[in-house]
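I hope you will forgive my troubling you with a question about protein structure. I am sending you one protein, given as its amino acid sequence and as whole-number tokens for its backbone shapes. Thank you for your consideration; the sequence and its tokens are set out here:
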Amino acid sequence: MRILDGEQFLVRIFMGDADKWHHTPLDRALLERLRREGFAGATVFHGVAGFGAASVIHTSHIVDLSGDLPVVIEVVDDQEHIDKLMPILDEMLVGGALVTMEKVRVLKYAAGKRGSSLPPPPSSTPGGAPGG
């Protein structure tokens, strides 16, 4: 596992959930690319409403259901990886997007335990037999 602490960089990538990269949702394609490239981590957030440079409101309300809800990907990493990120974004962000960057202070970066720490769900039938 990489060590990531102290002053680092946070990049936020704002896009729409209808954006694609070679027929794959762009957020998923970008997440997989960053993992392959050895980035420390990235998180995808799906929004329920928003608007961007075109000033069109996209919302999840059923009355005016949008096909392009907001998505934000956050990447925290060191300067070397952020420098590698910019050409990746230039390559993959071909539609509308907003990219911001700021310095952040990493207080903790550690892997969680593999697998679930929750106990197994209780059996729904007497004697623990499945089905029923």
